[in-house]
Amino acid sequence: MATSAQEVTELLNQWARGNQTAGEKVLPLIYGELRRIARRSMNRQDPSHTLQTTALVHEAYMRLTGDSGRHWQNRAHFFGVAAKAMRHVLVDYARARATDKRGGPHKPLRLEDAGVISGDRLAEVIALDDALTALSKLHARQSQVVELRFFGGCSVEETAETLKISPETVMRDWRAARAWLYRELERRDADEHRNDA
Amino acid sequence: MPTNTGMTPERYRQLNELFAAACERSGEARAAFLDEACAGDDALRSAVEDLLAADQKSRGLLEKPLAALASTVPGSQIGPYRIETKLGEGGMGVVFRAMDTRLNRPVAIKFLPGDLADAPARRRFQREAQMASSLNHPHILTVYDADEFEGRQYLVTEFVDGGTLRDWANAERRTWRQIVELLVGVADGLATAHAAGILHRDIKPENILITRSGYAKLADFGLAKLAEDPAPREETGTLTEGRTRPGMVIGTIAYMSPEQASGKPLDARSDVFSFGVMLYEVLAGRKPFAASTDLKLLQTIVHGTPQPLEDGTPPALRAVVEKALEKDPADRYQSMREMVVDLRRLARQSAEAPAPRMQRQARALKRAAAALIMLVLVAGSAFIYFHSARPASPAPLEYTALTSFADSATSPALSPDGRMLTFIRGTETFEGPGEIYVKILPDGEPVQLTHDGVHKMSPVFAPGGDRIVYSVVGNARDWDTWTVPVLGGEPSRLLANASALTWIGTGRGGRPRVLFSEWGEGTHLSIITSTENRSEPRTVYAPPSPRGMAHRSYLSPDRKQMLVVEMEGGWRPCRLVAFEGGAAGKPVGPSPAQCTNAAWSPDGKWMYLSVNTGNGYHIWRQKFPDGAPEQVTFGATEEEGIAFAPDGRSFVTSVGTRVSTLWVHDSRGERQITSEGYASLPSFSGDGKKLYYLLRSVANRRYVSGELWATNLETGQKERLLSDFLMEHYSISPDGNRIVFAAIDDTGHTPVWLATLDGRTAPRRLSTINATRTFFGANGDVYFLGGESETQTFVYRVREDGSGLQKAIENLISYFYDVSPDAKSLAVFDGRGAQVYSTDGGSLINVCTICGAAGGENRGTTPPAVRWSPDGKFLYLNDRTAAGQQYAIPLPPGRNLPPLPPSGIRSQADATALPGARVIHEARAFIGPNPSVYAFPRVTTQRNIYRVSLP
Question: Which of B183, B249, B556, B793 could be B787's S-S partner, Cβ–Cβ 3.0 to 4.6 Å?
């Protein structure tokens, strides 16, 4: 049973409001669409097609909902969802890539090959996701700032607009979150290697 | 670390407040503040200080969003360099081809891998840049620049367009003489580097780049070191801010000298050895030292003796290689200079004539260039006579249409007895939505066999002629083989993960065998043969690169050879591979080129190929095994797909012509204006009653040029104007009476002319500069984009009487979009994005980075990215990121630009946020007097199946 464009829009809206189940339903669709787009760009005869992450998300969003963004009440709504989607897709993807070393006969297309993310960033994405989840338990807004800026590619102004805070607050949050994440990533890395020894 | 364990949200907030406040103070003030605020709570204080320390170190962390990393992709710009294509990726970084927009020359940019931000790697990179740039030698790759972008260091070098030594060696069978002549230059360059005290340490075929004209350049001094430096320890993995990195392989083992393999100190003689290994490999076609594991390989290098070179190599050359490969450095050439002397001497001696292969190639190309084409479409009948005047007897090719759909038919194949034809009715020549049809030849009605709309490709008949087998292309790698009976019935899946399947006779057990493409890891697609249910599989050809995809395969009639169609980043030349033995094979046909289909003549003597060398797809052929490629079909049509009739006297192919019909959209709806030929550049008269356009009878790939026509939109009457001219571009003055245009003359030049539409005054040529865009300014001025070469164009201004020619904008401009009605603003594109230049004041304002229209714009079927309505009330923008979309933006009175965001419009949201902005869902709309009336071309390539009879 195919999901109609309307249902997808509704799922995305629900997910933006915090409904995890809706997110679980719509995520595979987004991922599928991203892969389709990436595959298309791989097979294109002209290899010089631009494939930026945010444009990718936008295109995937449009194709899924048949909506060119006109119905978003404001851009903020879209950015929030897109950043979350991008984070989930990339992290899911990075985790899947990390666990399969050999791979079976039917492996999905590699996003690295389509230029969406470079292969050496995948491990970082996983570690970051864990650290970010830990941060969100301490300071939800700081975690959102990082999610919007890092996964969503939002500028400081766009982040401020999305979260309805001032750009100065965004910068303060960003700086604090960054310092904390740095320590957290370091600590996790040290833990990992202690276990290896 | 106290900071992160046992933390609660409340404590975190407290920590943050202190952190933020501490950040605002420094030095003593900070310490004093912390003393007071943390009063006694030592744990808190050390947590804040820890965070402050982390703040310092974390500057690089997350500094750039992921999207920016991916933004080093084609289309983006780094300083003056515009990224074009990715050339490759290796342990030491990614390499792109780019254009230096200041000097207008192609360059190669190599980026240090993103997270190799640690100091030792940076130093190494800088060292490479310094060393390479200090060497000035024709056979050493020139380094132009080294800098940093968004935290990543990059190196800009000259761009070499011919590939590596490995590609060169594989492209054709090379004689020893050619190899020596090519490599002696590199040897000389290496000798120069040694003289400057620099060792390369990574000599291998991948680091020798060959220009298209056959000039070799030594590149990648990434591991080079100054001979006096102590062995740097930083090559092994280092800890970067708490995270380990895998150790890097130093050099490539196969080319290492024995002392390198043993970890002993190196000098210039180590490079001599590596050079010898490379020379041996190119001469012999195999490496001198080979083993199954890295460790064994190292041992073989230190102790093993390579096999002597074949007799084809003269004894003097064999001696040079052997001397270079001596185990003990004391027995080798003591310097590259000595080796160069020996190589030059042996190249001089010998009466051998230059390789005959080269000459034959040149002749074949000349033949192709000298051919003349005449395409005569006899109305009503299905014959096209194709006349090509060649030095040899002019042999007309007879084309017979087998299908005549208004949409398209592609991918033809014939049954074994040649009496039935199958094809896909659909528009795509690779894979796309379409249905399988079958037709009994010569006159049967085509019958549709599938009705599911899924993506398909490569239909063929099963040996019995009773079934048709085709590939269904699904998501990711679900490319399966399906079958449908010729007489109709339900399609069913035959084999999963098998595409472009063909039958190739019976195996040893008497069971039928098939040949197909199968997905492996990632995007690797290999050619496999097995029985019909996949037992006894054998990999016949696996592309050497993990991203290589061998999409189609064609076995020769004697079953000894196979032609492979492959793609890596884009279509590649077809490859000829031995069916047994697993060798890599060699490319065939013209090169560089894109080859998408192949076929063998039934007698096995000829290889036929569908190839695009830049002018569209045509059929070429090459005699097996040693012929030179020759072009078979020519002209403005395209031919893709080849299937031979069993008697070898004809083949079927899908012939395509590009058609652009013009339509108008207004309050009455949509109606068609032209129905044949190729129409482009429509524009409305001021009152909206007339539509002007250019019309050409067959689409020429490079030029838009055509005849100027006008149609009265109310009466439907059409007339041709200024019939002495063929135009590349035109603009009509606001008063509707004058026209300025770039006319193409017999020599291919496109000067600017001015004329009146009523024909009362004689047309006047305003300038001899080749122009591609012309517009009226104000007060008797004309603006145009022109220049001596396609890549060096400027915006010029000239008066309508032809005087006062001068540049209007100093910088190089790539596209000239429009002139505002008050002539105060010029919309252009200069490599950074769409800009508007104001003629009084001379400032350039960045308007839009998402605006543009690739491809279509140059052929006149998509409007310019930025333009004004004739009354100056609207600005129209074409969005290249959202397919099929334009924006109509109302302008404040007296202004030529709407209120723009600070760095211009960078997203669709930016555009739609402008007051009154309206989206028009037709990318090709050429807007008339108001946004509700527009003209748009519908461009299609119409393809049908034809039989081509060979003379």
Answer: B793
CA A46 to mean position of chain CA atoms: 27
With CA atoms as reference, report the closest residue to B516 among B505, B507, B525: B525
- Rounded Cα distance between B124 and B127, Å, is 5
Please list the residues that pair with B937 across neighbouring strands: B662
| pLDDT (tens digit per residue) in B40-71 | 788 888 888 888 888 877 766 665 444 333 33
| Model confidence, pTM | 0.41
- Beta-bridge partner residues of B720: B709
Question: What does the alpha-carbon distance between residue B202 and residue B132 come to, in Å, rounded to a whole number?
Answer: 14
**B252 Cα to chain A: minimum distance (Å):** 21
**What is the tens place of the pLDDT at every residue in B106-130?**
888 887 654 444 556 566 667 767 7
Minimum-distance CB partner of B476 among A39, A52, A149: A39
User: B336 with B272: CB under 8 angstroms?
Assistant: yes
Distance CA B695, CA B708 (A): 7
Considering only alpha carbons, which residue of chain B is nearest residue A35? B476
Length of chain A: 197
Task: List the single residue in B62, B84, B567 with the smallest CB-CB distance to A150.
Answer: B62
Q: Touching check for B794 and chain A: CB below 8 Å?
A: no
> What is the rounded CA–CA span in Å between residue B563 and residue B598?
7
Residue pair A94/B936 in contact (Cβ under 8 Å)? The answer is no
What's the CA gap between B695 and B688, in Å, rounded?
A: 20
- Given CB atoms, is A167 within the 8 Å cutoff of chain B? no
Give yes or no for a contact between B132 and B547, defined as CB atoms under 8 angstroms apart. no
Distance from CA of B254 to the nearest CA of A (A): 25
- In chain B, what residues touch A86 (CB-CB under 8 Å)? 66
Q: Which of B818, B792, B833, B856 has the alpha carbon at shortest distance from B660?
A: B856
Assess A90–B contact: CB distance below 8 Å, yes or no.
Answer: yes
Cis peptide before B546 (omega within 30 of 0): no
- Provide the mean pLDDT of chain B: 80
pLDDT for res B117:
46
DSSP-derived letter for residue B242 is T
Is residue B624 within 8 Å of B593, Cβ to Cβ? no
Contact of B484 with B459, CB cutoff 8 Å = no
Question: Is the separation of the CB atoms in B644 and B601 below 8 Å?
Answer: yes
Q: In sequence order, what are the residues at sequence separation of 6 or more whose Cβ sits closer than 8 angstroms to the Cβ of residue B504?
A: B513, B514, B515, B529, B555, B559
Q: What is the Cα–Cα distance from A170 to A161, expressed in whole angstroms? A: 10
Q: Tell me the count of A-B CB pairs closer than 8 A.
A: 180
